[in-house]
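Homework help board

Subject: predicted structure for assignment chain

Our instructor gave us this sequence and asked us to write out the predicted structure in token form, then describe one feature. I got the tokens but I'm not sure how to describe them. Can anyone check?
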Amino acid sequence: MPSIIQQIADELNVSSASVSRALNDRPGVSEALRARILQRAYELNYTSNVIARGLATSQTFNLGFFVREKPGLSAYNDPFYGEILHGVEQISAQTDYHVSIGTLTDEILSVPQQFRFVREGRIDGMILAGPDISSDFILAMRQTGIPVVLVDNCLAHSRINCINSDDENGAYLAAQHLLEQGHYRVGIISGPESWPSNARRIRGYRRALENGSAAPIVHMDCTTIDSGKVAYHQLFAQHPDLTAICAVNDSMAIGAIHEALRNGRRTPDDVAIVGFDNIPETQIIRPRLTTIGQYPIEIGQNLGNILFDRLNGANGPRQVIELPCTLVERETT
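My token output:
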């Protein structure tokens, strides 16, 4: 008994390849013929079967969205990456693809060849989210031949597509805002300088502050509320005359606000503080945090579009996309 694809091809006197292209929304079929094929498929109650197509093409119709493991915080609940994931899902919803979410443990990162999603052929493409995913792991994933796109990260010398916010200019806006408020003794609290987004934001802060004295900086090994508290304490222990702080993200800024209050300093009267990311908590904390706003939904949509271009065979030059940032002025400056 012939397949429905072959049946339609025979009835319309066209090739089975043309029928398959029309049913799978692929180019190479005229609009008139596509309409005839789809109409006949509708009459035959045909529904494109993703599982069958996967078996025929070795596709899984799954994409992977992976972040570094953080205790108590999933990709869905992460205030920044969760919004990016939502943007990716808006694009995938227009296709037959499903987005699988996973976390990368230290063990996975140290032995990338054992990463089950790739070893067992569970995904057709992946998004790696975060500056704390090592270049060794990223390059190992690229060597598998699976399309890879980075977000909040970028490799300087490898042909891997990446999407980021314009971190340097965003940070410049934040520091310039402090200068306009009359703050010239400004310190910086940051995570590891090896993280690309941290490095870009530090450059932006320092570019704005270069006309004043060199801005002191404290580096921590992560960018959490707790690390922000410790960084604040270290910064003021060495530079008690500071009047303002630039933090590389909102979590560290929120930690600094808490620590300032614990040490009897009011924000912004005694110390002004700016963050970066505009996560929801910035509007809950009191005083509400001045920060740099990003556009995570648009970032996710761009990620999805680039990844699907690669899955559909596009092989153009490497894309390095930076989306603009905006100053969100609230109550901490």
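Reply (TA_rk): Your tokens look well-formed. For the description, you could write something like this. The chain is about 40% helix and 15% strand. That's the kind of observation they're looking for.
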